[in-house]
Amino acid sequence: MLGPDRSRDPGARHLQPRRRRLFAAVGAACAVVLAATLLSVTASAGEKEYPDTAAKPSAAAGKTVGYFTNWGVYQRNYHAKNIETSGSADKLTHINYAFGNVAGGKCTIGDGYADYEKAYTADQSVDGQADTWDQPLRGNFNQLLKLKKKHPDLKILWSFGGWTWSGGFTQAAKNPEAFAESCYNLVNDARWKGLFDGIDIDWEYPNACGLTCDASGPAAFPNLMKALRAKFSGKLVTAAITADASDGGKIDKADYKSAAQYVDWYLPMTYDYFGAWDAQGPTAPHSPLTSYDGIPRDGFNTEATITKLKGLGIPAGKLLYGLGFYGRGWNGVSQAEPGGTATGPAPGKYEQGIEDYKDLKNRCPATGKVGGTAYAHCGNQWWSYDTPETIAAKGDWAAQQGLGGSFFWELSGDTANGELIKAIK
Fold first, then answer.
1. Per the confidence metrics, is the pTM higher than 0.85?
2. Does 204 participate in catalysis according to the annotation?
3. Where is coiled-coil annotated (predicted)?
């Protein structure tokens, strides 16, 4: 999701292109307990949890979900083969493929060339076999099918929306059933049969403002997810959601509680809480686990986000916590600790104020920790990012919370040997 557009709100890492293994079986006893728990929660609210025609979502425990971007095949030169050679494929349970577009009230193709047309040579291919000029499917879709063949338990979801393309959800919400029909037909297109195991929705943000503002009302999001659940019977349905837990913030704008019954899990985007869109600072870590003395804004940390969502009655097992495989930084900073003033965003390879972990770890090594994440002061630059150490600690915290797993944005930010993903617990 690298590119010039950037949200000033937590969780905006899921930008739009130009440029954010489900276990084979779940024990029958666990399934019964989960179902009973969920049904009791809905019964107490006086609601029926699922439409009669819909399959119930599966348990979320133990998930490691990584975003793979279609635009990564260009300047970043990151391909499906890198998921294999880095060792990431052995760690992942799910891949969210980002992004499909939302236009005209429908799910549409994001980048046809990267998705299914780009030809791969033998040395670029997951299985060492070159594409031929006349084969029916090439591009990322074919390479990901090859990856799934090597890893039969790996599941792949097609994620739609993102920062730039979320404006299309306003129209889609006017006829959720038609939208769901279009998404189902595209995700299950015969040309890439067997690739996708479900759909992920990244609407930034329902009944609130992101790149554009939506005013479709608090019921729009649950209505959309209900239609998707009914259509994608037996498939995964997930949603990346805001992490803004401030009073009157984005979590309060949409009915995430009601929509939770229709999703297998939520991915609250617990990163991008702070960044150099506030050009003069104060410097603050973009992905704090907890609050700390001097944090610029209440409700902008992972613990606050998860606490608020659980407080709505959303089961902990349906919540994954988010990690950023990148850092955010400021320039013109003299203070080593957070809270310093700045003159603007720090330089980055693809965009000012942001840099991949694989580059930052050596260019500006961590010099301290605050709020459960790391920060670095080098010269007149100040950066914050997670390290293997802080990621492991976040995993311990998530286990204590009973969360369903973790997800991260995005695969190409990691080192060539998967240093960050291997630290995820």
1. yes
2. yes
3. none
